[in-house]
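Consider one such protein record:
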Amino acid sequence: MSRKQIHKVSSKERAQILDEFWTMIALLESKDEVRNFFKDLLSASESLMLARRLQIAKLLLAGWGYDRIEEKLKTGPTTIASVHRWLESGFGGYSSALPKLKREMQRRDRVEERRQEESVPLSSAWMRKRYPMHYLLTNILLEDKSLIPPKKLHH
């Protein structure tokens, strides 16, 4: 595919093309759709490059210094500086997306932890899963923490 110089594309055409691109991404409904779309769109190295930028942003937001990030991700200081600059003065994309990613990864960790607990025979988690009707009230309370009455404070 030939490259078109950005300054030769009119601002109206650029806005239309980018609007269609952002809309197409927003319409993807599942992780599989997103993965397949980007596998078709990007080369393996381009995908990895973008994913590494997210890793750099996460580490910068976690307070890591450039040297530690360079050592961990085997990336150059210029790339780290670019991501840092986008974090500081960009459009807020990293800042809004990364907390969502963190919540999702924590949710996945909890699900995996629960799966591991449920796989241990005769554990309470295994029993609740194996005999759900016997543990119906317990399971309901564990699913919806708002149903558990607050503890009263003793004076």
In short: The two ends are 75 Å apart (CA to CA). The chain has eight helices and no strands. The first helix runs from residue 11 to 27.
